[in-house]
Amino acid sequence: MSGLSQNTEQRVYTVGAELPPLQVRVTRSQLVRYAGASLDFNPIHWNERFAKQVELPDVIAHGMLTMALAGRLVTDWLGDPGRLVSYGVRFTRPVVVPDDDKGALVEFSGKVGEVRDDGTARVDITAKFDGKTVLGKATAVVR
C-alpha cells in the first residue's frame, strides 16, 4: 500500500505519500440508480430539458455521489473503511453527465498532507472532471 508501512500494531503514515489514483466513469444509468438509493429525484440529475431550463449545461451528477466516489479512493487505500475518522468536502463545480454509454470521467487522487501525534493523518483529495476541480477542501482524517 502506497504511503503506509505495516508493523505489528499500527500503520505509519508518511507526509507526501500518494494514494493510488482512481478513475470512475459516471453514466446516466448510475445516476438513476443513485437517485433510487438516495431518494434524491431532483430532475437536474435525470432530465436534460429541466437541467438546461435552470441554466445547467446538461444533467449533472449528484454531489453526494461524487463525494462518495472520492471517499472510495481513501477507503480502498486503507483497506478498512472503519479507519476513516472524518471526511468532508465542498462542492465547487458540477460533473456534467452526457447521454451516452461512456459517461463522465471523474479522476481522483490523494496525498497524505499531515501526520498527527495522535496516530491519525490528514489525506488531501483532488477530484477532477474535464480537467477542472469539482470538490474543494476535500480532506479525510484516517487512523
What is the topology?
Blueprint (H helix, E strand, L loop, with lengths): L3 E3 L4 E3 L8 E5 L1 H11 L9 H6 L9 H16 L5 E8 L12 E12 L5 E9 L2 E2 L1 E8 L1
Antiparallel strand pairs: 1-2, 3-5, 4-8, 5-6, 6-7, 6-8
Tell me briefly what this model is.
23% of the residues lie in helices and 35% in strands. It is of the alpha+beta class. The model is unreliable at 5-9 (pLDDT under 50).
General description of the model:
- The protein has 143 residues and is an alpha+beta fold.
- The protein has one domain: Hotdog Thioesterase (Thiol Ester Dehydrase, Chain A).
- It is built from three helices and eight strands; from the N terminus they run E-E-E-H-H-H-E-E-E-E-E.
- The longest helix has 16 residues, at 63-78.
Number of H- or I-type helical stretches: 3
Count of the separate structural domains: 1
Classification by helices and strands: alpha+beta
Q: What is the H level of CATH, i.e. the homologous superfamily? A: Hotdog Thioesterase
- Mean model confidence by pLDDT: 93
Number of strands: 8
Question: What Rg do the Cα atoms give?
Answer: 17 Å
Strand content: 25-35%
CATH architecture: Roll
N to C succession of SSEs: EEEHHHEEEEE
Instruction: Note the main sheet.
Output: 6 strands, antiparallel
Instruction: Briefly note the CATH topology name.
Output: Thiol Ester Dehydrase, Chain A
Stretches with pLDDT under 50, minimum 5 residues = 5-9
